Amino acid sequence: MGFRDELEQDTVASLPLRDAIVVQHDTTALNAVKLMREKSLGCAVIVDPGGTPTGLFSEQSLVAMLARDLSLADHPVSDFTDAGLLVVKSSDPVSRVWDAVERDGLRFVFVTDDEGRLIGVTGQRGIAEYLAERFPQQVLVQRLGNTPWMQQREGA
Amino acid sequence: MNGTPPSDPDDFEDPLSNYEPTQYRSELHRVLAEEAIDDMQSTPSAQVTVDTSIRGATKMLSELKVSSLLVVKGDTLVGIFTERDVLEKVAENYVELADQPVGEVMSADPTVVYETDPVGMALAGIAVAGHRHVPVLKVDGTVMGIVSPKRVLRHLSPYLN
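YS: structure for the whole thing
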């Protein structure tokens, strides 16, 4: 069985999920930013009154606002939504998230249960962790650092 | 004259004659373990100098539609300035900070990988160290580019089956 088969068989529920930040369309960008900082998460999902995701406010949205010297306190998140909103079910195959990251360059993918209730967010980080866990001898043993390897060597 | 007797070429034994290359369960295992990062896409990457203003760097992130900038002094990488730095260090005080140099808020001494490191090292930088973007350096220490989750997955995709 190839790894592509595993991506088709495993479900999104097997990916690491983080709690999503939920905001309303009229939440100010400043308040969304405060929540994102507090949770150390790069996006907030905008939902309608029924709780259905309708848009995404992301770090990219934030950068776009600041680059135009706009006040975060004076604009709702709905003024600067990110185009990359994807919602999948936890019972969907992992391949949906893989393809979203690899082909579409999405950073975040929102996950609902089978009834459509939002249960979390995954994406680039989630799929990278999933991959690393399946190839521990190739990934988890690596010695990471920020010191040039010439300086790490011991001896003469 | 040293004490090493002249060697007879006929007596030479290749120390690698019994070498057996590592057997991998799949091409994906091999690529992660053996293929070098310089075989995968690490360019283009965007760079700024350490004295670029935060306003200038933020505009560059927006206009280039990239999520990180390598911060350099000459040929040397000194930091990385990312959308996460904008969120966590800049956004709420942007007016006061906008004219400060990006070197004040960049993430200094970032985790890096080298062009000769295996692809698995790039994935470790993302999945284990938790960095969305990992700068790639040449073996002489100069800047080569940057790797991202998208670039890693795109490189691995041909080997999934």
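YS: worth flagging: Helices of chain B lie at 27-34, 54-64, 83-90, 94-97, 119-127, 149-156.
IM: good catch. Also Residues 54-64 of chain B form the longest helix (11 residues).
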